[in-house]
Each structure stands twice: as structure tokens, then as C-alpha cells.
Design goal:
The complex is a heterodimer of chains A (145) and B (105). With 145 residues, chain A is an alpha/beta fold. Chain A has a single domain, classed as Mannitol-specific EII, Chain A (3-Layer(aba) Sandwich), CATH 3.40.930. Chain A is built from five helices and six strands; from the N terminus they run βααβββββααα. In chain A, strands 1, 2, 3, 4, 5 and 6 form a six-stranded mixed beta sheet that branches. Chain B has four helices and five strands; from the N terminus they run E-H-E-E-H-E-E-H-H. Chain B has a five-stranded mixed beta sheet with strand order 3-2-1-4-5. The radius of gyration of chain B is 12 Å and the shape is globular. The chains are: A alpha/beta (145), B alpha/beta (105). At the A-B interface, helix 3 of A face helix 1 and helix 3 of B.
């Protein structure tokens, strides 16, 4: 099975300065790995969802996502921003998980992994590891454990 | 005290599971017995059955999506919460439910 997160989908000290820029920069990472059919279309879906339902979940974490036909392969990109950006009226975010899932994702495997990852994000020990690690390889290990 | 909960969100990919985890963790910290059913894109997991209903003090349902088979909770006190609140404020939600349940005793 193809992995939903790889080394190339993790970025540290991303210098994007707004929420829109963060989503764009990270979506481009996913696109560069040939995991999207349509970058623009995917980003529009993510923005649209953010408008109605901002995905900041507290602890400086945001999980923008798009479940749409513009996605080729189920993917998670992770970025730790150089400095936090405003994510909603109430919240800033510095740790971003951009999720891309095809509308018609048939297999449960990838969705199971995403569900597990979502649960992990709620655990303080896991978030501390994301905050404190300085190596991409170490992060990859934490994210895929 | 025993609580049941069902979580569901529009895409069914992330918040459903975050909310479940948040509620489970908050309940554990308070010594509350809880079972959380998730209705996500994977389908229904950790299904709440007739047996689970026995002795239940309150039911928490997220209100962003229609909850499937909600009629099984008829007759029990039901609290509806936004899924984002279940993710971010599980502690406060449980405190309120706890206060409500205690006030009925």
C-alpha cells in the first residue's frame, strides 16, 4: 500500500505568512508528489471548507482538509511554521496537517490511518514530539508510528 | 456515572475521531465511564448496542451531521454539541453533563 505521508510531504520552518499561503504552499507539496489531479480545484475545496468551518482545533494545530475528486491519492502533508498564522477569529496555528482524500476513496486502510492520526493529534505527548523534533526523519517516524 | 456519545462530521475524515478521542480522554480523567461510537467515512465503529444503554445517565450527540439510529437513545437525556466544541471543549461539556446528572439525583 502506498504511504499517505512521506518525507517529501513534511516541511519544517515553513515561512508562509497567512493561512491562505500556508494552504497553497502545502498543496503544492502534495501536487509535486503527483498526488493531485487538479491543484487549483483542490485548493478551492479546502478554502471553501475553511470558510464555513475553520479547522483550527486548539493547541496551535489546524487540520485543513479536502475530500474531493481533485485528489488522486490519499495524502497528509505536515508543516511546522516558522511563526504562527491567524487561522480563525479565535485561533492561531503553527502545526498544520493538510489532508487530501479522494471523494470516492474505496479502501478503508487509508481512512483508518487518518482516523488514527486524528486521534493521536489529541494526545499531548504526540504534540510535544511534533514541537520538539528538529529532524524530518524523526518527524516522519513520529507521524507514521 | 455513565455517558454514551456519538460523533460525526461532514467529511468524516478527522473531526469525528478527534472528538471521540477528546471525549474519551476527558471522561477518563474525571473517572466517568464512557463509550463513544464514531460515524465516519470508515463507517460506524464501536457501535452502541442495547446492552450499553443500560444505566446510562446521559447521551452526547454531535449536531453537525445527522446521527444514524439516534432513536435508540429515546427516553435518555440527550445533549447536542457542535463537533468543534467536542474537540476543543470536551472537559467543559462533561462538566456540564455531570452537573446536570447530579442535579437529577
Amino acid at each position: 500500500m502506498e504511504k499517505i505521508i512521506t518525507r517529501d510531504l513534511i516541511v519544517l520552518d515553513l515561512e508562509s505568512s497567512s493561512k491562505e499561503e500556508v494552504i497553497k504552499d502545502m498543496a503544492k507539496l502534495i501536487e509535486a508528489q503527483e498526488r493531485l489531479h487538479d491543484l487549483q480545484g483542490y485548493m478551492e475545496q479546502v478554502y471553501k471548507r475553511e470558510e464555513t468551518f475553520p479547522t483550527a482545533i486548539g493547541f496551535e494545530v489546524a487540520i485543513p482538509h479536502g475530500k474531493t475528486d481533485t485528489v488522486k491519492k490519499p495524502t497528509v502533508a505536515f508543516a511546522r511554521l516558522k511563526s504562527e498564522v491567524k487561522w480563525s477569529d479565535e485561533e492561531n496555528a503553527r502545526y498544520i496537517f493538510l489532508i487530501a482524500v479522494p471523494e470516492t476513496e474505496a479502501g478503508d486502510m487509508h481512512l483508518q490511518i487518518l482516523a488514527q492520526l486524528s486521534r493521536k493529534i489529541m494526545r499531548e505527548e504526540f504534540r510535544d514530539q511534533l514541537k520538539n523534533s528538529s529532524e524530518i526523519d524523526e518527524l516522519l517516524k513520529i507521524l507514521t508510528m | 456515572m455513565k455517558i454514551l456519545a456519538v460523533t460525526a462530521c461532514p467529511s468524516g475524515v478527522a473531526h469525528t475521531y478527534m472528538a471521540a478521542e477528546a471525549l474519551e480522554r476527558a471522561a477518563k480523567a474525571k473517572g466517568i465511564e464512557i463509550k463513544v461510537e464514531t460515524q465516519g467515512s470508515i463507517g460506524i465503529e464501536n457501535t452502541i448496542t442495547g446492552n450499553d444503554l443500560k444505566g446510562t445517565d446521559a447521551v452526547i450527540l454531535t449536531k453537525d451531521m445527522g446521527i444514524k439510529n439516534a432513536e435508540r437513545f429515546n427516553g435518555l437525556p440527550i445533549v447536542k454539541v457542535a463537533i468543534s466544541d467536542a474537540v476543543k471543549k470536551a472537559d467543559q461539556i462533561l462538566e456540564k453533563v455531570q452537573a446536570y446528572v447530579n442535579s437529577k439525583k
